[in-house]
């Protein structure tokens, strides 16, 4: 299917905002590509590009003006000004002069230590296969010089740099990660959105002049392979013209063949419509789902943005994170693990350590994660904290166990082993392991006696089983 020349793509996008049915008049694409109509039934029928399911692990980056106060959470502005929560009000009274506004934080978002090459290298070291950056959060500040942001953006205020462009370039030049962008549909205090809200969303000034043009702008300018939508503002998808945008994205955008989207496109769409499902923040159902899903979660248990007042106990340990990854992948999901950089552009040392630890674990155990499929059982029925994945190539079953047994033997209730055929291997250890079948189902495996330094890794180990039903 031929791409649209230069300015034609965003022009078509803006037309679709105003004329949602426009796509129906378009001719079918060349090469037998299907055309998607701006209806959920049509859009939901689009196959999810294969790379996303194979990737399994990505890094979320929440960065914006909220990184300046870096207190409480990225919802600082809302909690301070709208809900007037006491800790936020007291924090401002104690540290800033009377009359200080949230907009005054803008010039303090400086990013002087932001080195996109260093970020890209850390992301690569994490073992992640994709990254999603907040191009704009609910505060409305864009990390690129948007034509629609009224100077409330990183090119006109603060860093005076196009942060989206810089990170996209470094990620693409230095890694094999897929680059994605988060975008908030609504903005807490935008007067146009507040006016539409007052009119019960019967007027659509905000999406037609601000939110939708921004979406077309970031797609045509940066060609992200993930559009991670969020913040419906209690408005329906018809207010946002989500189906019109997605039809353009899947039919005519420069990323139409590879782009993936989530499910946050208006009230009622979450966990129901879109590409992969997120269902809720930190969603981890613990069982297999019929639709591709993602567990978006934070290393800092309390916040997506950076918090200067975080305590060490507020951060998940690497053992916690490996467990989240294994559980999620076993049940057919992807893990999107969030970090919050500082206002001056640093990835705090605790986040860098967790990312590098995850990368070290994946370097050993990656074959139990990347490109796998769910097995017939997700977790073991006999021994807790054992999770299964399956590699179609070679028919290998992986059993990831999170606790090394004191007895030196591990009992698994699910595999059906066959004498003379089944082989058991500890990934990262050369010799095959001895095992005994427990009747038709179940197996006891003798683990090697290893010192802590001899273990293949420190936080969860993988048994690879061949020829088990």
TrEMBL record:
Has keyword Signal?
yes
Site feature May be important for catalysis, where: 296
- Known SUPFAM superfamilies for this protein? (Trans)glycosidases (SSF51445)
Reactions accelerated catalytically: an alpha-L-fucoside + H2O = L-fucose + an alcohol; a neolactoside IV(2)-alpha-Fuc-nLc4Cer(d18:1(4E)) + H2O = a neolactoside nLc4Cer(d18:1(4E)) + L-fucose; a neolactoside IV(2)-alpha-Fuc-nLc4Cer(d18:0) + H2O = a neolactoside nLc4Cer(d18:0) + L-fucose
Q: What are the GO MF terms of this UniProt record?
A: alpha-L-fucosidase activity
Residues of the Glycoside hydrolase family 29 N-terminal domain: 33-367
Question: PROSITE patterns, alphabetically?
Answer: ALPHA_L_FUCOSIDASE
Q: What is its EC number?
A: 3.2.1.51
Keyword Cell cycle carried by entry = no
Signal peptide range equals 1-25
Give start and end of each Alpha-L-fucosidase C-terminal domain.
378-466
The protein's job, in short, is:
Alpha-L-fucosidase is responsible for hydrolyzing the alpha-1,6-linked fucose joined to the reducing-end N-acetylglucosamine of the carbohydrate moieties of glycoproteins.
Subunit details for this protein?
Answer: Homotetramer.
Q: Which protein family is named in the record?
A: Belongs to the glycosyl hydrolase 29 family.
Q: What is this protein called?
A: Alpha-L-fucosidase
């Amino acid at each position: 299917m031929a791409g649209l020349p230069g300015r034609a793509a965003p022009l078509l996008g803006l037309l679709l905002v105003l004329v949602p049915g426009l796509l129906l008049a378009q001719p079918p694409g060349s090469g037998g590509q299907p055309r998607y109509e701006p209806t959920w039934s049509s859009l939901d029928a689009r196959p999810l590009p294969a790379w996303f399911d194979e990737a399994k692990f990505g890094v979320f980056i929440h960065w914006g003006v909220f990184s300046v106060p870096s207190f409480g959470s990225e919802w600082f502005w809302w909690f301070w000004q709208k809900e007037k929560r006491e800790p936020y009000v007291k924090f401002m009274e104690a540290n800033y002069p009377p009359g200080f506004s949230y907009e005054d934080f803008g010039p303090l978002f400086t990013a002087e230590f932001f080195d996109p090459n260093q970020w890209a290298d850390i992301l690569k070291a994490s073992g992640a296969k994709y990254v999603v950056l907040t191009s704009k959060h609910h505060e409305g500040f864009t990390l690129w010089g948007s034509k629609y942001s009224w100077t409330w953006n990183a090119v006109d205020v603060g860093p005076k740099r196009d942060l989206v462009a810089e990170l996209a370039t470094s990620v693409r030049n230095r890694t094999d990660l897929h680059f994605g962008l988060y975008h908030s549909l609504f903005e807490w205090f935008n007067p146009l959105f507040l006016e539409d809200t007052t009119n019960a969303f019967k007027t659509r000034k905000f999406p037609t002049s601000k939110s939708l043009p921004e979406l077309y702008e970031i797609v045509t300018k940066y060609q992200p392979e993930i559009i991670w939508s969020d913040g419906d503002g209690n408005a329906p998808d018809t207010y946002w013209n989500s189906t019109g945008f997605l039809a353009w994205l899947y039919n005519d955008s420069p990323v139409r063949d590879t782009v993936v989207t989530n499910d946050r496109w208006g009230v009622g769409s979450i966990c129901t419509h879109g590409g992969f499902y997120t269902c809720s923040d930190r969603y981890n159902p613990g069982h297999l789902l019929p639709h591709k899903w993602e567990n978006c979660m934070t290393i800092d248990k309390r916040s997506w943005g950076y918090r200067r007042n975080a305590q060490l106990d507020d951060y998940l340990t690497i053992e916690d994170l490996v467990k989240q990854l294994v559980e999620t992948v076993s049940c057919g999901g992807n893990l999107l693990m969030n970090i919050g950089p500082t206002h001056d552009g640093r990835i705090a040392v605790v986040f860098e350590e967790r990312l590098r630890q995850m990368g070290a674990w994946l370097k050993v155990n990656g074959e139990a994660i990347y490109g796998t499929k769910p097995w017939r059982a997700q977790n073991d029925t006999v021994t807790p904290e054992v999770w299964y994945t399956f590699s179609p190539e070679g028919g290998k079953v992986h059993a990831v166990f999170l606790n090394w047994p004191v007895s030196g033997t591990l009992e698994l209730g699910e595999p059906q082993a066959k004498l003379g055929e089944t082989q058991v291997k500890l990934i990262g250890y050369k010799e095959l392991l001895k095992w005994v079948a427990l009747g038709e189902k179940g197996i006891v495996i003798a683990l090697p006696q290893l010192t802590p330094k001899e273990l293949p890794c420190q936080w969860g180990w993988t048994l690879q089983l061949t020829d088990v039903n």
